[in-house]
Amino acid sequence: IEDWVGHAMQIAVILGAPHMRIFSYLRYGGFRPADLGKLTDHLSKLLGLAGHYDITLQLENEPVCNVGNIAELAAFFVADEKASKEATPDEEEEFEEQGSQPKLRYLRPLVDIANAWSTGERPSDADIAVLAPLTTAIHLKDRVLSANRTVPLGDGDPKDQPDQNLWFARDPAAMAAARKWGNVAPFYVDQEAPLPPGGLPK
Description:
The chain is α/β, with parallel strands linked by helices. 39% of the residues lie in helices and 11% in strands. Helix 1 runs parallel beside helix 3 (42-53) and helix 4 (70-85) packs across helix 8. It is globular, with a radius of gyration of 20 Å.
């Protein structure tokens, strides 16, 4: 296939896929976020087609690739947003002439926590905070930590880590004990954000 980028997008359109998962090339030394757009024209072609067909590109953190963990995923999107803000007037005019939407709308992070854990990373709150406003999808799977392998969701064996405030089961009593909250109700209440129409529940 000579034009694999166009062919991949055609398949997505035929299948009615709203998202397309992409990666950041096999890992090599000295990678910089700008390399994704400079090494080849694949990403720019994909972004143009994504805007045309309204299909979001989801860049996943994959350990064997240059963007392999959550910190690297966050760093990529920080650099990408900075580059977008520093675009020259000529670049912005060309963007407008193509009739495309802002780049970040069609290039989003696909957060994979299990992939991060497989590299030994424990994603930081700061990196998650960077990615959260941009994230429209996450890749869910599980880890068997004792065997160091990825498994289907629900088949893993992660253990709660109260000292790091990491919880894999919602146990109000255990959480309260770890946080020294005293006696708590044996249930929890989720607060939806933003508030649903009408401001309920209250």
